[in-house]
């Protein structure tokens, strides 16, 4: 059995090198992503163009996620991460060269770029998730997931504003060049990180067989499988309202696009606070009550927002409720991820995480497909009530399923016994 190989005396330095490298690539990549959206908005001004861009960015994850796991488990993970960023950097360099002599990018070129970036990002997150348990002691995995969540939150806070500023201040091809800078800095940091090999590294890849094996391994762990399905159901009900958040602010509460921006920024800042809390205080003996509580609070705050009066007084309460939802939302996200990382051996984790990503990725687009027509029929504020029901339902299902509710107690006991051997 492959065990965690991270050494207690040096794992922190190794992990923080990894964390800083992901921050550098994450910020530059997300700035370019937001800048691309701003560019499309300014150049076309058509909702259909933005809708197509969103779909192009989401489809690769929904389609390819189940099949990336076999590559993650068989190929050197450091090489994989560098390769993802290298592909994005090469595309950025090509766009930069084109932009030197052309003022405007054709839409088809932008869509292809978004699609290629989405393919790289599809494999990136499961790779990172499968690396974490190999470089961090298992008893620290919840806290370091919280710290990683802080990095993600910082990226979401900084990127939109910087992206908008740079599109306004510089030609778009200079902004795109940030991807190359991010690759150089991130790859340089990653080369310093020690990532242990797993027992399956170097074995022959059989995509369909390995993907099925990952699915079977996930299903064999009944509590984790049920928890994953409940999370996917939550996303299915929650995502439509999230995609319509700007309309909630402008159409229902009567605010401006600036007010909508406040909601996004403060929600991301609240996520940062939640990640910080998990990163500092995350070593709890039983995480399931916290996860259930977080789903319930998110459901009550977001669902309750749909009952607020449709005016600016209601908007200020909406802002406060979103701050609370952002804080607790990171609790269920980071703790659930830590439980999954501890539940499977490192040599299978890439395949398992690929399947989990696929289930979550399919739930999001399916929900988004119905978002606009349903909103037109019932009103955007009632979409918040549906999202809130999704959170309350997830909390209820987790609580009334004994094998899931008590799973972390069983898992912690198992890990404790393993550490004594």
TrEMBL record:
Residues 14-405 form the Major facilitator superfamily (MFS) profile domain. SUPFAM superfamilies: MFS general substrate transporter. The chain crosses the membrane at residues 15-37, 49-72, 79-99, 105-123, 144-166, 172-193, 227-248, 260-281, 288-308, 314-332, 352-372, 378-400. Pfam families: MFS_1. It comes from the Bacteria. Keywords: Cell membrane, Membrane, Transmembrane, Transmembrane helix, Transport. It is found in: Cell membrane. It is a multi-pass membrane protein. This is MFS transporter.
